[in-house]
Amino acid sequence: MTPASRSATLLLTGWIAAAAASAQTGAPPAGDGRQPSRLTAYLYGKEQIGALYEAGRQWDKKLGLQQDCKGPYNIQPAGLFLLKAIDFPENRPHPVAGIWQHRYVFERCGRRMTYNVVFAARPGDKPDARPHVPGNTNASAPLLADTLNGATPAALLRLGKRAKECKSAELIDTRLVHPPREAKDADKPAGHWEETWTFRGCGHDVELPIVFTPDGKGGTHYLLKGGS
Fold first, then answer.
1. Number of domains within the chain
2. Which residues of 210-226 are buried (b: 16+ CB within 10 A; e: fewer)?
3. What are the CA-CA distances from residue 166 to residues 133, 158, 225 (Å)?
4. Share of the chain above pLDDT 90, in %
5. Which domain holds residue 208?
6. 108, 132, 156 — which closes off a domain?
7. pTM of the shown model
8. Which of 103, 132, 161 is the last residue of a domain?
């Protein structure tokens, strides 16, 4: 998935830095003298930040991270992606349509993890918040699901070398190693990018390097490389 073909469009880039400073308080970002729009204020409001915090705690617990941490948390916005157009009528407290994704750094007691939450608007109610896979993968949701179909069995094979007959592998982190770039040779066409996905199963972690290559027709192919 290249930036041009990606269905998730980065929003509000001018607000990101200021939002990071105000994330704990829930105050809308306004670092450059402009007044934030009503939608901007909502997307960086206390309710949204609270949902990010809860998702971060859930992932930390699931991954066994910082369970003894008693210090304050810090949420640093890292990206806001529009997945489906947002409809936010003036007379409604919440958007009535739309899907968007928050990517953020969740920091507690010196440990930093990148998490993602997808919000889906619901008429007459607050948005449904669904934790997404951790990390900064560049893959869209359909591409991620397609890649998992091939990556999970490969992860199980590697986990099986460490824990005999291991039958469980869960994706716990994604890391963008080389972002989409211009073509330099025939083996690395335009839009080619590389990631490392970490799977956990049976008490062990394994990493899978994955190469993604746009096909020039709106699709993207993936190739699993030898991993640890």
1. 2
2. bbbbbeeeeebebebee
3. 22, 9, 21
4. 61
5. 141-224
6. 132
7. 0.79
8. 132
